[in-house]
Amino acid sequence: MRILFRLLTFLRPYRTQVVITALAAAGLMACSVTLPYLTRLVIDDVLGDGREGLLVPIAAAFVLVVALRFGLGYVRRTLAGHVSLSVETDLRARLFAHVQRLSVGYFDRMPVGQLMSRATSDLQTVRFFLGYGLVFLFMNAFTMLLVSGLLFWIDVRLALLSLIVGPVLIAVAWRYSHVSSPVLLDVQQRIGDVTSMAEESIAGIRVVKAFGQEVPRGERFATTARGAFGRSMDAAWIRASYQPFMGFVPLVGLALVLLYGGFQTIDGAITLGEFVQFYLYLTLLTGPFRSLGMLVGNAQRALAGGRRIFEVLDAETDVREPEDPVPLPDGGGAIRLEDVTFRFGPDARPALDGVDLEVAAGRTIAIIGPTGSGKTALTQLLPRFYDPERGRVVIDGQDVRDIGLTDLRRAVALVPQ
C-alpha cells in the first residue's frame, strides 16, 4: 500500500482534473442506470397499461440521457488522458533529473538497460493505472454501490440471491492479487535484463565483432530472453487460471436470478417491467465484477513498476555536495594523494591501496601499468566521481571533498579514450 500512496502523490498537481473526471464518471453511471428505468416504464405503463401518450416523452428522455452520456464520456476520457500523459511526463522528468544527480558508482551497479526499462515500460504501466485504472476502479465501486441499492429497492430477495456470489469473487480476487504480485515484479525485472543485454550488445557492437563474439552474445541474449519468456508465461498462466473464473462467477448469479425471477414474474410477485429492469441492472453490475480480474492485474503490474521506479528515485548518491563548499583555491593545480585506498565496490579488491603521490603544478606525467592497476581509479578520484575509502585527494592544498562539485569539475578536464 505504501507504493500505491506514493504513486498517488503524483496526481496532486492535477487534483481538479481528477475530481472532474470522477464526477463525470459518476454522472455517466447515473445516466446508465436511468435507461433500465425508462425501459420498465415502456413495458409496464405503455405496453401493459396502454398509456400510449407516455411513449414520446420516454423516447425523448431516452435520447436526452444518451446524449448526456456521450458528453460525460467525452469529458471523462479527455481529462483522464490529459492526467495520464501529464503524470507520465512529470514522472519521467523527475526520474531523469534524479538519475543525472546520482554518482558514477551507481551506474557501476545498475545496468543502463535496467534504467531504460524502468523509464519506459515500467513508467507506462504506472501511467496507465494512474490515468485510467483508478477511474475504472472508482466507476466500478460507484456502480456496485448504486446498482446494489437499486436492486434491493426493486426486490430484496432477488438482490440477495444475485449478490450471493460476491464474497466468493472477493476471495478469488484477493488470492489472484497475492499470487500474481511477485511473478509480475519478476517479469518486469527480466524484461529489464533483456533490455540491458540488448543495449550492451548494440552499444559495444564493434568490440563484439572485433573479437568474433557474435555467436556467444547471441546465445546469452537468447538465454536471457527465454528467462523473460518463461516468467511471462507464468504470469499468463496465472491470468488464464483466475480471470476467466472471475468472469464466470457473476454469470452464475445471473442464472440464479433468471430462474428465480422468472418464477416470481409468472406468479405475479413482480411485474414483467420490474423483472426486465432488475435484469438490466444486474447486467450493469456483472460488468464491474467481470473486469475485477483485469483491474487487479493492471494494479499489480503498476505497483511492480512503481516499486522498480522508486528503487531508482530512492537511491542516494555516494558522492555528496559539501554542506559548506569552499571555492577552488588559487594556484597552478598541484595534486597530492595522501595514503589513498579505494575500491569500486564493497566486495572488490582495492584498486588503490595506501597510495601517496605528489604532482607539482604545471608538471606533465604519464601513469602506466597493467589492466586493473588503478590508473583509471586514480584519475576519477580527482573530479570526485568517487571518494576514497581512506586518505585524501588534495588540489592546491584543499581536500577535494570540501570543494563544490561544480567548481571542481569545471577545473578538472578529462579526455576519455
What do you see in this structure?
The protein is mostly helical and 417 residues long. Helices cover 71% and strands 6% of the residues. A hairpin with a 2-residue loop joins strand 3 and strand 4 (398-399).
> Helical proportion?
over 70%
The end-to-end distance, rounded to whole angstroms, is 47 Å
The topology string of helices and strands comes to HHHHHHHHHHHEEHEEH
* Anisotropy-based shape: elongated
Q: Give the number of helices.
A: 13
Gyration radius, to the nearest Å? 32 Å
**Largest sheet at a glance?**
4 strands, antiparallel
Low-confidence stretches: none
Strand content: 5-15%
Rounded mean pLDDT score: 84
> What structural class should be given to the helix and strand makeup?
mainly alpha
- Strands of the widest sheet, in order across it, are 2-1-3-4
Write the layout of secondary structure elements.
Elements lengths: L1 H7 L6 H34 L6 H47 L2 H6 L2 H43 L1 H7 L3 H38 L1 H6 L3 H53 L5 H19 L1 H22 L21 E8 L9 E8 L15 H7 L8 E6 L2 E2 L5 H7 L6
Antiparallel strand pairs: 1-2, 1-3, 3-4
Helix pairs in contact: 2-3, 2-5, 2-10, 3-5, 5-6, 5-7, 5-10, 5-11, 6-9, 7-9, 7-11, 9-10, 9-11
Describe what is shown at a glance.
With 417 residues, the chain is mainly α.
Output the keywords.
6% strand, mainly alpha, single chain, 417 residues
